[in-house]
UniProtKB/TrEMBL annotation:
Domain DNA polymerase III beta sliding clamp C-terminal: 253-377
Any one cellular-component term (Gene Ontology): cytoplasm
This protein's record includes keyword Repressor: no
Source lineage: Bacteria, Bacillati, Bacillota, Bacilli, Lactobacillales
SUPFAM superfamilies: DNA clamp
Keywords: Cytoplasm, DNA replication, DNA-binding, DNA-directed DNA polymerase, Nucleotidyltransferase, Transferase
A GO biological-process term: DNA strand elongation involved in DNA replication
Residue ranges of domain DNA polymerase III beta sliding clamp N-terminal in the record: 1-126
Protein name, as recorded: Beta sliding clamp
Subunit structure: Forms a ring-shaped head-to-tail homodimer around DNA.
Source organism, top-level taxon: Bacteria
InterPro entries assigned: DNA_clamp_sf, DNA_polIII_beta, DNA_polIII_beta_C, DNA_polIII_beta_cen, DNA_polIII_beta_N
Length: 379
């Protein structure tokens, strides 16, 4: 196996698949990078058993300056190989595999020889049916991930809650995540000709990794499902993730249908005030801040205290408020993460009582995005 290619183009592909390679895997060969060279391209594969990423460097793309002299497959130690390629002196590089998988990498006056492994020992990637394809705008899907993955559970005691629950029906994609203290739900309408249907739970860690890859991409991403795998295809790159097994809890009943107190804020203004109040609450063992709402006075007071440090109190004027007076306490970290994903929009917060979950929604398209937070009992 032998080829010559543009080093920067190769590094770009290398960086993509390296996202899936971990030095902590229990399967030794997965610390390596698999390379399959055919007559038309170089196919690079990285995997950590949960996530697998595959991308190709095609000879047909003139930017790759790829010349394939002989074909073959090999697994190379990912960390060493990546560091070598990134530090090579010339803009082109050549790679040749000799006897016993000894691999020679050359660029300019520099030459490295590293030991490779037989690619036959590398686990096969799952077969995913690519017949039923769901097309999603990459920027919208990245937004959906960012808005929901904040609420996935970090506790392995209920594995199903460590993922985001995706359902597709009637051209509506619904994404829901909850850690049982808060919930995030986002709905997206798909084109009318997209009549697919599915119900899956994708691990939050997989989605975070996918989100990084979608940054700045303005094309569509294709999604395909098999029994226990999901495949996302973006140009020359394929991203595989395992699915979580089990039934996701019915979260629709958690969202209150009515409220007794409502107020509107610019999300950024409320976020700044919560951040200030949490400076002291973080020093306290219970990490709680209190909201005192008096709709008739059109004022909301945010307060927090730490017995060791001191107290904080700040009055805020909402854009509007209505309903009953209320005092409610909550974890400020949950509130901050919820507010950040709204960006600079105006939001409506609805409360039913001091001990019932409250919701945050944008003032426009309220049905499409809901954040729910469970209050903290302080008495």
């Amino acid at each position: 196996m032998k080829f010559v290619t543009n080093r920067n183009a190769f590094i770009k592909a290398l960086n993509t698949v390296s996202r899936a390679i971990s030095s902590k895997t229990t399967i030794p060969i997965l610390t390596g990078l698999k390379m399959d060279v055919s007559e038309s391209d170089i196919l690079l594969t990285g995997s950590n058993a949960d996530v697998s990423i595959q991308t190709s460097v095609k000879a047909s793309n003139p930017d790759n300056e790829l010349t394939i002299k002989s074909t073959g497959s090999i697994v190379l130690p990912a960390r060493f190989f990546s560091e070598i390629v990134k530090k090579l002196p010339d803009k082109t590089m050549s790679l040749e595999v000799g006897d016993n998988f000894q691999t020679t990498i050359k660029s300019g006056n520099s030459e490295f020889t590293i030991n490779g492994l037989d690619a036959n020992g590398y686990p096969h990637l799952p077969e995913v049916d690519t017949e039923n394809t769901v097309d999603l705008a990459a920027d919208i899907f990245r937004q959906v991930i960012g808005q929901t993955v904040i609420a996935v559970s970090k506790q392995e005691s209920r594995p199903i809650l460590t993922g985001v629950h995706f359902t597709l029906a009637n051209n509506k994609l619904l994404a829901v995540a909850t850690d049982s203290h808060r919930l995030s739900q986002r709905r997206v309408s798909l084109p009318a000709d997209d009549d697919g249907k599915f119900d899956v739970v994708i691990p939050g860690d997989s989605l975070k990794e996918l989100s990084h890859m979608l940054d700045g991409i303005d094309q569509n991403i294709q999604m395909n499902l098999s029994e226990n795998q999901v495949l996302f295809t973006l140009g020359d790159t394929r991203f595989y993730s395992r699915l979580l097994e089990g039934n996701y809890p019915d979260t629709s009943r958690l969202i209150p249908k009515s409220s007794n107190t409502k107020m509107e804020f610019a999300a950024g203004d409320l976020l700044s005030a919560i951040e200030r109040a949490s400076l002291l609450s973080h020093e306290s063992r219970n990490n709680v801040i209190k909201l005192t709402i008096k709709p008739n006075d059109q004022v909301v007071t945010i307060s927090g205290n730490s017995p060791d440090v001191g107290t904080v109190e700040e009055d805020l004027k909402p854009k509007s408020s209505e309903g009953e007076d209320l005092e409610i306490s909550f974890n400020p970290d949950y509130m901050k993460e919820a507010l950040r994903v709204f960006g600079q929009t105006d939001i409506e917060i609805s409360f039913t009582s001091a001990l019932r979950p409250f919701t945050l929604v944008p003032t426009e398209n309220k049905e499409d995005f809901i954040q729910l937070i469970t209050p903290v009992r302080t008495f």
